[in-house]
Amino acid sequence: MAIKAYNPTTPARRGMTTQDLSDVTTRKPLKSLIKSKKMSSGRNNQGKITTRHRGGGVRRHYRLLDHGIAAGLTLTIEEIEYDPNRSARIARVKDQHGLYHYILADTNMQKGAVIKTGANAPVETSNRMPLSQIPVGSQIYGIEINPGKGGQMVRAAGTKAQLMAKENDYAMVRMPSGEVRKFRLECEATIGVVGNVQHQNVKLGSAGRRRRMGWRPSVHGKAMNPVDHPMGGGEGKTGPGRNPKTPWGKPALGYKTRTRKSTNKMIVRSRHEAKRKR
Fold first, then answer.
1. Domain boundaries, the chain
2. Cα-based distances in Å from 193 to 10, 84, 87, 89
3. CB 20 within 8 Å of CB 89
4. Is the pLDDT at 278 greater than 70, yes or no?
5. pLDDT, tens digit, 9 for 90 and up, residues 58-116
6. Which residues fall within 8 angstroms of residue 182, CB to CB, at 6 or more apart?
7. What is the DSSP string of 219-264?
8. Alpha helices (runs of H) in the chain, residue ranges in sequence order
9. Which range has the worst mean pLDDT, 84-88, 176-180, 234-238?
10. Which CATH architecture does the domain made up of 3-37+58-199 adopt?
11. What does the pLDDT look like over 265-277, one tens digit per residue?
């Protein structure tokens, strides 16, 4: 899959690129597998902004993906579709009972291909099965954190994890960040690499394109007044002179904010340790 460039008809178009949609086989989603999506604009259930610089954007319908596809199914890929709610492509599949599902599409999925699920499925790309049945060294995605809950990790475009080892009741998996993490062998994953690998190379090129995606403008703290930001103020352009801070005074770089200590025991090697070894 390649990245398509625009003709330089305007300054914004000169550096703008877009996705190649040649792998998408249909433009219309299945009505029974979509629902209306309300824009939260970065606000929580109390109406308070918890994620800044979000709002507006084009209206979208949410595709109901089945991340925890049942075992023992034989699925036939009928269409590869574009999903405006995620970076990866999705596949419309039909099982042997005549029911339709949406699943994440990997780099190997094509219209008409057949994939299988469950512990008895053959070890082939796109098949989904427990980690206990996947050979060591395989590339996987859509990994379950809790058995039966559905794939929650490694779902973005072009991402993949690698099954490194199996010890007792756990599998050691190297995540895209370099972190090595333990998963129960009963957790399921799909063999392969998430599709739309070139997504990270797309250049938006213009502010308006980002607004249509639901992102609002941001102003860096150095341009603000001292009452609005710890980095604001000064005559002319001045450097920070100290460690950079968030608008609320917390360190912006190198400050650990992870609070889910209950899952730390599952991390064998952190991504920071992996980077140091490189």
1. 3-37+58-199, 218-237+244-278
2. 36, 20, 13, 12
3. no
4. no
5. 999 999 999 999 999 999 999 999 999 999 999 999 999 999 999 999 999 999 999 99
6. 170, 171, 172, 173, 266, 267, 268
7. --GGGS-TTT-TT---SSS---SS--B-TTS-BSSS------GGGG
8. 11-14, 207-212, 271-277
9. 234-238
10. Roll (2.30)
11. 888 888 877 667 6
Compute the mean pLDDT over every residue in the chain, rounded to the nearest whole number. 92
- Write out the two tokens for 237: 């352009």
- Domain 218-237+244-278 in the same topology as domain 3-37+58-199: no
Give 154's pLDDT tier (boundaries 50, 70, 90): very high
pTM of the model: 0.89
Q: Terminal CA-to-CA distance of the chain, rounded, Å?
A: 29
Instruction: State phi, psi for 197 to the nearest 5 degrees.
Output: -65, -30
Query: What CATH number was assigned to the domain covering residues 218-237+244-278?
Result: 4.10.950.10
* Structure tokens belonging to residue 159: 């991402």
Q: Which helix (H) or strand (E) holds 153?
A: strand 151-153
CB 109 within 8 A of CB 91: yes
Pair of tokens at residue 32: 């029974």
Q: Report the distance separating Cα 35 and Cα 15, nearest Å.
A: 35
Contact between 193 and 235 (Cβ < 8 Å): no
